[in-house]
Structure prediction request, 648 residues.
Amino acid sequence: MNAGQDRKQIFVQEVAPRDGFQNEPVFIPTDAKIALINALSDTGVATIEATSFTSPKAIPALSDAEAVMRGIRRNPDVCYSALVPNVRGGERALAAGVDEFNLVMSVSETHNLTNLRMSREQSAATLSECVKVAHEAHIKVNLSLSCVFGCPMEGDIDTREAFRWVQRFTDLGVDGITLCDTTGMAYPTQVASVVEQFRTLWPESRLTLHFHNTRGMGLVNVFAAVQMGADRFDAALGGLGGCPYAPGATGNVCTEDTVHMLNLIGYHTGVQLDALLDCSRRLRALVDHELPSQVLKAGKRLTVHPVPRSFEAIRARAAARTAL
Amino acid sequence: MNAGQDRKQIFVQEVAPRDGFQNEPVFIPTDAKIALINALSDTGVATIEATSFTSPKAIPALSDAEAVMRGIRRNPDVCYSALVPNVRGGERALAAGVDEFNLVMSVSETHNLTNLRMSREQSAATLSECVKVAHEAHIKVNLSLSCVFGCPMEGDIDTREAFRWVQRFTDLGVDGITLCDTTGMAYPTQVASVVEQFRTLWPESRLTLHFHNTRGMGLVNVFAAVQMGADRFDAALGGLGGCPYAPGATGNVCTEDTVHMLNLIGYHTGVQLDALLDCSRRLRALVDHELPSQVLKAGKRLTVHPVPRSFEAIRARAAARTAL
Prediction:
């Protein structure tokens, strides 16, 4: 595979430091977070969602947001984003020097209430203030919409309902929209349809897809999305992640598995897969459980294995049988 | 989703009783194998590869092949196939009443020698005799070709080389050909290309695809294959399986995850997913480890979860904030 300029670019956004670590039962030491983000900064990913400026009481796992943002080495080619839940969080994020706010609300009223303790209207009002804070500070702002492909409590969500929130925040001038499959309910024909509709309605918008592998379809959904022209994906190193409010939910689509597949099917991610696998091994040492990553366990497709030590003897015995 | 006749039929072939159980370190009792196959017979799968008539010394896990075949209840809508490695195995399979022989060789010389202790030419000569045995007995015979999408020791395999073996056995009049991704090296654009070429060269042949999920692309490859018109897949309940001679190899593509996806994207499998999940829970109790199945753990996409018990209080508190 030649990584030529003739290949279409796909942007890979690493979310493990935020969406992954926030669900880890054991606090990852700040120094380890910084070291991992520094290593990820050299892999070629386009964006790293580094932390969350939520209340330290709400998400103790990320209570070191300022220390992480101030401690990391900044690669000028990488956008360092952070989750911002409200104006107070936005002010903290600005002071800590983030490149982009990532705002989150759900298109499911039930999920938004359960997860964020607000109605969607209340979330939209709060996040609109955050958009203003970002604009006044001249930094980028992205809106992530949860449960676009289904809600674990409500079931299917009408795409028109999801798009109503896209329109509302597009009107406010956000720099990008992420459609999130928060609990792994998306399936490839649905993804293809939603991406096609989105690109027709908002051809100039920066669209990101965020998939989980809960029902095994994470990479299928990435494949279906790129077939429809999507070019930007959230993914988590090792497949870390999951939503504590969605029972049975499992990890984000795995960054190294995603890059491995995108390379094979002819896209240019700019990501050095070997460096990414080094990061994943480092992550594995930080958490107290196996990672869902498949390529971490099996190796790259063409990492060939040696023949057994008895191979020549096997071949000789086989040849002798034919000679009889 | 309506399971109407207007949907294209996809045939699901269950291989866990052979390709799965042969790799289990603990012997599954014969009665348990029979009970599982009987339960699988009522799920709507098209074929069950029930066992292997290899030497009991070579594969002790399946040393009860005769007892299994004679013990199961036969659903007339299901084809009960078995792996047949040689004429002696074919005679045993006939005596035990199998519906179809499944013959296996590798398109990689190194893999064939390592796995079967024969050159490919020696395998082809042996299997040609098995085809004759099947034809004389008027039962069906399928050829499964391993490593079509890559060999863990040789790397990429030229598709023309794989197709040379397809042509050779098609000339012998086999009833079907299975292209196997033995160690999970296939990727979706490769799969699409191979399926398209196969269907152009042998439009009348019954083609089966056999994928492993070693690098996370099992379902992506199924999706890419159905997009090119493939309509028959091997899959293993729970995602059981793996090849003992391929380091790092993991399970077959999971039957319930495959059926779950195929149903969602608009195909008719005829398989009752709930009954299949019951079988998978039964399988989980038989083996001493977790199964790779995602749908077994997470549930079907629209199996919605109840809201938290505190939901009405959350909603009331949110509403009170707006009223302030």
Q: What stands out?
A: Chain B touches chain A through 66 residues (CB under 8 Å). Chain B has a mean pLDDT of 94.
